[in-house]
Design a protein that fits this description.
Order of helices and strands: HHHHHHEEHEHHEHEHEHH
Number of strands: 6
Strand content: 5-15%
Strand order of the largest sheet: 3-4-6-5
Structural class: alpha+beta
Radius of gyration: 28 Å
Low-confidence stretches: 1-92
Shape: globular
Bound molecules: zinc ion
Mean pLDDT: 74
Length: 294
């Protein structure tokens, strides 16, 4: 009996042990599984933000992933970019990494930013009712906020034997519409329907309100030539334009972010201070605004 009792007690103890161990295992397991989901499945606040904004900003968020790549092939698929970004993100500097982890809502940004930092691209049209302070400049029109710097830049360049002339600067929405419609008409020959024609046209001419030229803050130099990058004028601009607050807006190595191919002739005014930092940190405008908002 004693033995049985003892045995019973032991068994009871063992049962308690087993029960305790089981609870512990379940708890630990539960916590681990919970943690797994918290850390692996649930988006972090910043991930959530990028997911929420992915509809309005999909090109940018996908493209930012691509920023980690050493060499860029413009035709590469966006889906590939996502996985590549995960693999190579460790190669980025922490500063840039932080700036890439956040997607600015450019629509909101454009409502309150310094006028020289407005972001206008395929996904972010000019805010409704936007009134740039547009003034005459030689044969074209530009934003008043960059007029003096543009004048100084062209003047200083000419003192060094560099002849800069402006092919295109401010374009009104009406002008942009005319250019765009003309391109749609011409694309209709290649396209099966109007939607397709519009899509093809928008690769060549920005839709009204989606061109930086609509802001008055962009200038195209010396005849919009593909080989402009081989010229001494381009070389001079590349070295000196930031001193006057201009950036080469559509660089080859950033085309996966801007969604615009290399345009060696297109310069954008952002102000001296910003242009300097963007060059130092190797950031295009979209990246720089993310960096500022981080
Ligand atoms: Zn341009």
């Amino acid at each position: 009996m004693k033995k049985t009792k003892q045995h019973f007690k032991t068994t009871k103890k063992s049962s308690k042990k087993v029960l305790f161990t089981s609870i512990a295992v379940v708890l630990v397991g539960g916590i681990s599984i919970g943690s797994y989901f918290v850390f692996n499945s649930n988006p972090s606040p910043s991930q959530k933000q990028s997911l929420n904004e992915s509809n309005s900003d999909s090109n940018l968020s996908l493209s930012q992933g691509q920023a980690s790549r050493g060499s860029i092939n413009d035709s590469q698929e966006n889906t590939e970019a996502i996985s590549v970004s995960k693999v190579k993100s460790s190669e980025l500097t922490s500063e840039i990494k932080n700036s890439l982890s956040q997607n600015t809502n450019f629509e909101l940004w454009n409502q309150n930013c310094e006028p020289n930092l407005i972001v206008v691209n395929k996904d972010n049209p000019l805010p409704k009712g936007y009134q740039g302070d547009i003034v005459n400049f030689k044969e074209v029109q530009v934003s008043n906020i960059m007029k003096d710097n543009l004048y100084r830049m062209i003047n200083d360049a000419s003192k060094e034997g560099i002849n800069l002339w402006i092919s295109s600067a401010y374009r009104s929405l009406e002008r942009q519409e005319t250019l765009y419609n003309k391109e749609v008409e011409s694309q209709r020959k290649n396209a099966c329907n109007l939607e397709e024609a519009k899509r093809l046209a928008s690769n060549v001419v920005a839709e009204p309100g989606k061109s930086e030229h609509n802001t008055g803050l962009a200038v195209d130099f010396n005849g919009v030539r593909d080989d402009f990058f081989k010229s001494k004028e381009y070389n001079w601009l590349e070295k000196n334009s930031a001193k006057y607050g201009f950036i080469l807006r559509y660089r080859k190595e950033k085309s996966h972010i801007t969604n615009i191919v290399f345009e060696p002739w297109h310069f954008r005014y952002v102000g001296e201070e910003h242009a300097k930092i963007m060059n130092e940190k190797d950031l295009c405008l979209e990246e720089y605004i993310n960096f500022l908002n981080n």
